[in-house]
Amino acid sequence: MHGLINRAIQCFIQDTYGGPAWAGIAALTSLPEGGFNALRLYDPALTETLIDTATRHLEKDRAGLLEDLGTYLVSHPNRASLRRLLRFGGQDFDDFLHSIDDLPDWARLAVPDLTFPGLELRSLGEGEYRIEIEENFRGAIHVALGMLRGMADDYGVLAVLTLAPDRPGIAVQVHEHQFSTGRDFNLAVSL
After folding, report:
1. Residue 183 and residue 52: Cα distance in Å, rounded?
2. CATH homologous superfamily of domain 92-176?
3. Dist CA 131 CA 101 (whole Å)
């Protein structure tokens, strides 16, 4: 598993639950001292152990923890760069959804050795979509669900996103495009 993913899990736990929670999980998992290096590759079994240990230590179910991770990745101030990257996908939520097929290619441009789940958008009619996902690790669909819910909020859209019942995918129903103001987004960043 790419260290970027493991590092994201580490930062999520530290930012959401605090340093002591991370220290407890790290000790139980026998992680490398100082945590994960975002540029290294790790055995996928270590990532599974990390997630399983975190769910027990934090008393959360796996799906809920991974969905919270996805939401964190697009909404926490420490992850603003990922949010900005995703907002380049479109001016509104529908445009963003139509760009979702390109996300794996964008990820490979930025990090060539990152394995990103395959995504395919299917438009089912007025405001209804289905996103099919090739899970590259157990629970990737829950991370994607959290990210998509976070992006819907970011755009100010009222949408219902649920796991599709028949095969790995997410059902999206957009009910109102301007439900709330959404978060501000400008192409130019003032530093």
Report:
1. 33
2. H-NOX domain (3.90.1520.10)
3. 9
